[in-house]
Amino acid sequence: MAKQKIKLKILRYTPEKQKKPYWSTYQLEVDQDSTVLDVLNEIHWNIDGSLSYRRSCRSAICGSCALKVNGQNILACETPIHKFKGKKLKIEPLPGFPIIKDLVVDMDNFFEKLRQIKPFLILKKPLPDKEFTQSPEQFSEIRESILCILCGACTSSCPSLWSNKDYLGPASLLKAYRFIFDSRDDGAMERIDMINDRNGIWRCHTIFNCMEACPKNINITEYISKLKVKIVENSI
């Protein structure tokens, strides 16, 4: 398999040891079809074992390897280095989150906001003898939204969050949509009350960064717009 020489600049930072982040540069030879995660593994395993980053499934399912490469939020495990059409990669942690170490960010606040919108079915009707059923039309309302893997790439790319850390963010709002428009759920009004404030749905300014960053190509802005329409309709 053909090899390629590449140069990487990786943002490094250990808050307990450094006053501010700094860049480390690496040069190595890798297979041309290597992913960004392959390159990080090569550095960690054979060059610099102190480099910290997250990885798990290698199948673009867990979302743990989300980071920023050459200005784009991506999943390291599924993104080949040839996508960037050059021999230089600039790798940073997801912006908008506190750095724990190097490319590892603190996502506690991200998941706390998800918990706020109660990401589970709220049932007030009796349980059926078997499973709840949905028609194809009912399922189509939420089909794309359930593809979210909670990687945080969309929320990290949102300028509204950069300026307001209390904003729920696109991932939480997408999850709210997923349950509010689920025909089996009885908690729509409860969730609408949760997101209908200055740090919720109305903080979204339809910038579309979230859609560009989403590794699953979910039309997040469209679903947030549907939530806005739903809230307005309920207020009339």
The fraction of residues in strands falls at 15-25%
> Which structural category do the helix and sheet elements fall into?
alpha+beta
Q: Sum up the overall morphology in one term.
A: elongated
> What kind of sheet is the major sheet?
5 strands, mixed
Write down the CATH topology of the largest domain. Answer: Fumarate Reductase Iron-sulfur Protein, Chain B, domain 2
Sketch the topology as an H/E string, one letter per element: EEHEEEEEHHHHHHHH
Number of strands: 7
CATH architectural designation of the largest domain: Orthogonal Bundle
- Please state how the strands of the largest beta sheet are arranged side by side: 2-1-5-3-4
Averaged pLDDT, please? Answer: 95
Distance between the termini: 64 Å
Folded structure, characterized:
This protein is α+β, with helices and mostly antiparallel strands. It has two domains: 103 residues, Beta-grasp domain (Ubiquitin-like (UB roll), Roll); 128 residues, Alpha-helical ferredoxin (Fumarate Reductase Iron-sulfur Protein, Chain B, domain 2, Orthogonal Bundle), CATH 1.10.1060. It is 31% helix and 16% strand. It is built from nine helices and seven strands. A five-stranded mixed sheet has the order 2-1-5-3-4. It has a two-stranded antiparallel sheet with strand order 6-7. A hairpin with a 2-residue loop joins strand 3 and strand 4. Helix 2 packs parallel to helix 6 and helix 6 packs across helix 9.
